[in-house]
Amino acid sequence: MKRLIVNADDFGLTEGVNRGIIECHERGVVTSTTLLVNAGAAEAAAEAAARHPQLGVGLHLNLTSGKPMLDALEVRSLIGDDGLFPGMSAMVRRLISGRAHADELAAEARAQIDKCVELGIKPTHIDSHHHLLALPRLRSAVSGVCRSAGITRMRGYHMSARSLKGFAISAAARMPAGEPLDTPDRFSGIEVMGRRDMAVSLGHELAAPGDTLEFMCHPGYADDILSRVSGYNSLREVELKALLSEEFIRAIEVAGVRPVSFRDL
User: How many domains does the chain have?
Assistant: First the structure.
């Protein structure tokens, strides 16, 4: 039987995002999520996860926003003069150019894994904020750290790309890097972020080859806090409604798939 992982990114970003993810899980849609350990609602997210033991929780490795787990002196190549991660575009440039030091990337990844454990969560897998783990330099730097911490699974980007962003991510992810971690057979969700017709896309993806599909999503409730920490805000509510729609739930039922999390791979 084909298996489906519906993974909600950004757990811990805000209370509104936490609430949206948990609501989708309680309705039987979201089976997995990934935690931003350096975000403002991370502790509340961990508490919610403890109340929902069937929800798989991995690490949403964050190198683009907020403060690192480590002291600034330990990760100088990863942060700006303000001591914060420099944003997606700047971090991509640092990774591609090699300005982001591999040892610092590995150390920060380990610190974020350790923070997960400190919060009571044994990560089921790893993925990354803004898809940086598609880049081979970052995968090379952190794959060994992940395995040493007992994390053997990660998001893969085996997808039907239909946009420039999708093509770029998919192409980067195909480049070999480090000791590979296990991934689902297929990935989707990038092409339908913020859209109401997620059910249509899910139906197409579930009909494609592959035993296990990961469908990425970003449900949440928008509020003033979210608007200050993320440019992706009101569309989270669009995704929330799409995920909880009869059409989306029906698409899962019609496909006859088994909902799972990364711990089941």
Answer: 1
pLDDT for the residue numbered 59: 98
DSSP 77: G
With a cut of 90, say whether residue 160 has pLDDT above it. no
Longest CA span, the chain: 53
Instruction: Specify the length of the chain in residues.
Output: 265
Q: Where are the alpha helices (DSSP H) in 66-157?
A: 88-97, 102-118, 136-148
The radius of gyration of the chain from alpha carbons, rounded to an integer in Å, stands at 17
- Look up the pTM and report it: 0.96
CA distances, 154 to each of 19, 54, 60, 102, 172 (Å): 24, 19, 10, 19, 15
Q: Which amino acid is at 16?
A: G
CATH number where 228 lies: 3.20.20.370
Q: Within its chain, how far is the Cα of 143 from the centroid?
A: 16
Geometric angle at alpha carbon 18, from 50 and 83, rounded to 5°: 100
Let me know: does 154 contact 126? Beta carbons within 8 Å: yes
Phi, psi of 122 (to 5 degrees): -95, 110
Helix (H), strand (E) at residue 259 = strand 258-259
Residue 171 · residue 132 · CB < 8 Å: no
Tokens of 205: 């993806």
Please write the tens of the pLDDT for every residue from 70-98: 999 999 999 999 999 999 999 999 999 99
Q: Is the pLDDT of residue 165 over 90?
A: no
Over residues 43-48, the mean pLDDT reads 98
